[in-house]
Amino acid sequence: MAEDVFKALADPTRRRILDELVERDGQTLFEICARLVTRHGLGLSRQAVSQHLAVLESADLVRSRRQGRYKYHDLNSEPLEHIVTRWLRPRAPESNP
Amino acid sequence: MAEDVFKALADPTRRRILDELVERDGQTLFEICARLVTRHGLGLSRQAVSQHLAVLESADLVRSRRQGRYKYHDLNSEPLEHIVTRWLRPRAPESNP
DNA sequence: TTGATAGGCAAGTGACCACTTGCCTATGGT
DNA sequence: ACCATAGGCAAGTGGTCACTTGCCTATCAA
């Protein structure tokens, strides 16, 4: 649902998580936590990140696969493709004066 | 700022307002109120809509021009153009099996 | 089996946000 | 001048949301 996608994108931390996943798929919860700290200076609890991932999953922006005691997270950019096109209109090409 | 754009898009009512403006530019506050009621069944106070418009304006998704006692609102879709591309990756074209 | 690692569940808290209400300003018509 | 219309300002309220804390389960290694 597009509704959930907009909600998911509303939070800055969740957008950072997407930034991390678009760069490297298949990260675990702990990896994401670590990278949020080292690369963005975000010191969040593990639960916080876990809850963010749940929101992203319910918007189908993140898919997860369990493997042993690890859970790998992958970005799914498909819901983003046309989420914004409903407000786009043809822009006049710039004519240099 | 992209930050403000995501915040602006987070609210369903604001997205409806954009829906109205993409269909017809130059609407006044009262017009938008009326159309939200008649076309979407949203019964909001005038102030609520006014505040939503302020948020949309601060995200530069809506531009307004004053003329006499009227204030006309126009959609500006430009901030939406590339807001989402940072998470898009090349998708493999579907090969029919 | 014991301990360490990866993750989940659930309740509590504080802050932000959407919305309302009441009052005020400004422009235009008659 | 009067009144109606279009809009703005500011304080108050309820609900949602991000985040924490504490405890529990599951997998792997020694």
Automatic annotation (TrEMBL), chains A, B:
Residues 1-95 form the HTH arsR-type domain. It comes from Streptomyces smyrnaeus. Keywords: DNA-binding, Transcription, Transcription regulation. NCBIfam families: HTH_metalloreg (NF033788). It holds the Pfam family HTH_20. InterPro entries: ArsR-like_HTH (IPR011991), HTH_ArsR_DNA-bd_dom (IPR001845), HTH_MetalResp_TranReg (IPR051081), WH-like_DNA-bd_sf (IPR036388), WH_DNA-bd_sf (IPR036390). This is Helix-turn-helix transcriptional regulator. The keyword Heme does not apply.
